[in-house]
Amino acid sequence: xxxxxxxxxxxxxxxxxxxxxxxxxxxxxxxxxxxxxxxxxxxxxxxxxxxxxxxxxxxxxxxxxxxxxxxxxxxxxxxxxxxxxxxxxxxxxxxxxxxxxxxxxxxxxxxxxxxxxxxxxxxxxxxxxxxxxxxxxxxxxxxxxxxxxxxxxxxxxxxxxxxxxxxxxxxxxxxxxxxxxxxxxxxxxxxxxxxxxxxxxxxxxxxxxxxxxxxxxxxxxxxxxxxxxxxxxxxxxxxxxxxxxxxxxxxxxxxxxxxxxxxxxxxxxxxxxxxxxxxxxxxxxxxxxxxxxxxxxxxxxxxxxxxxxxxxxxxxx
Amino acid sequence: xxxxxxxxxxxxxxxxxxxxxxxxxxxxxxxxxxxxxxxxxxxxxxxxxxxxxxxxxxxxxxxxxxxxxxxxxxxxxxxxxxxxxxxxxxxxxxxxxxxxxxxxxxxxxxxxxxxxxxxxxxxxxxxxxxxxxxxxxxxxxxxxxxxxxxxxxxxxxxxxxxxxxxxxxxxxxxxxxxxxxxxxxxxxxxxxxxxxxxxxxxxxxxxxxxxxxxxxxxxxxxxxxxxxxxxxxxxxxxxxxxxxxxxxxxxxxxxxxxxxxxxxxxxxxxxxxxxxxxxxxxxxxxxxxxxxxxxxx
Lengths: 317, 297
Description:
The complex is a heterodimer.
Chain A: E1 2-9, E2 13-19, E3 25-32, H1 37-51, E4 56-63, H2 67-74, E5 78-79, H3 82-93, E6 99-103, E7 108-114, E8 117-123, H4 132-142, H5 149-154, H6 167-179, H7 184-203, E9 213-216, H8 223-233, E10 237-238, H9 246-262, E11 277-283, E12 292-298, E13 301-306
Parallel strand pairs in A: 1-4, 4-5, 6-9, 9-10
Antiparallel strand pairs in A: 1-2, 2-3, 6-7, 7-8, 11-12, 12-13
Helix pairs in contact in A: 3-9, 6-7, 7-8
Chain B: E1 2-5, H1 11-24, E2 28-31, H2 37-46, H3 53-65, E3 71-73, E4 76-80, E5 84-85, H4 88-101, E6 106-108, E7 111-113, H5 116-128, H6 131-141, E8 159-163, H7 166-169, H8 172-184, E9 188-191, H9 197-200, H10 213-225, E10 231-237, H11 241-256, E11 261-266, H12 272-296
Parallel strand pairs in B: 1-2, 1-3, 3-6, 4-7, 8-9, 8-10, 10-11
Antiparallel strand pairs in B: 4-5
Helix pairs in contact in B: 1-6, 2-3, 3-4, 5-6, 8-12, 10-11
């Protein structure tokens, strides 16, 4: 069977899917990037290979903050940003979608669609308060597994106000409220409300949020945040079936678009998992701009170089 | 006498005029090099962290100039065209410069308040004590006040209006990555610098409410181009008060007219990766939009 591979490498997690030409998901994997994207991508590929025995990958796409690295490693046909990937996947599964709320490990975005086409978007600009890594940190601090964090918010009797503008202040506020004797459940609900407030005020500010509203990305797994969104927006917020891997599905759909036009794939095959990749960075000292140049090596051979302003390194690969 | 001109802020509009003017007065000028990371890092250490990126950059240029010249030229542009004001940080930059490098060199800062040309004549007179020479130098330099930029449009490409102050966009250190990303995504770029001053300073419609010189230019350029381009990208330096207000107005007007609008906020922490992601997504939105409107025709 012919299939398409999509990979989404984010700051916190690495996601991958294999889909058929009808966009049916036949394999998916979600694992932690843990600061080692090369390792994570290899494991992901191994994992997906085990799930898909009789399929032939005829197109591959990557997205996420490490899309470029993932793209060179697996030989992707398309390397696209996560906004378009999320928009495409969402409008396939929910053709009526008008708003996508996506909160990941370190960024959050809003995408507006009309008639299935993305028309506007915004990403958090100078601050990442209220994204996944902060929630995770708070869960660890309170000794609650992140998977159950949202359920605590649902058991709250009342909400308390937590300052959501800055994570450091939010944490001081949580500590202070706990010292006043307020229950953990109420504080967690307060935190979920603060995250939603911060998102609506800084990321989604001024945007026309209309139903159907989809909520995806890692934080969507937190039922507390989902209900906080519903309270704030007074609308139903829907979690798509594959909310964790929507970006990866989008990348696979993009690969499919590409292959149907170009009839060929650059995909290097699942053997990527066994090849040795090294990434290095150095600061070029040839001019005062001191660009940080990133290099990727496959078995000792340089395959990609970028990060220079003038292009003299990136052009020579 | 050797006069230093920082290649920052006003330089990107008046720099050629000033160089010609001083040269015809017989005064040697030194212009600091193009902004680079070193200059920025020096500036960062000298100035309040709350201030906007272009001011941080100019402070780096002052530092570079201070031991190479005896005088730094930095005019205090307060008001132009009656009722149009400069931003407070630009009015105050002279005082920042005095605090920073004032004990190492002179700061030459004529105050310009609705008298741009006459203020320069007085400056020339002061420097040479010769009214004839001052007037001659001014006349020779005046043609360089006009913009000489023109658009080269490839009609097959979608057009994007890059909106930002000249001291952001014309400074390659800030503007180059953004321009390059749009060109790479297949766009033809236009900016407000190619427009005539009569369009930029027009007080018609909403623009009459805006009393900051350069904000009015932004709004007028936006309004003029709204029906001529496929998308608008507004580039704001973090902490710019006037930009945050006018940017929001333009955003709303663009939405009403269904023109895709992207706002990029920049400061010294801005990463190229973040900019490229946003520009790539924005480009895709414009292209997919054109594609479907064509389908419905």
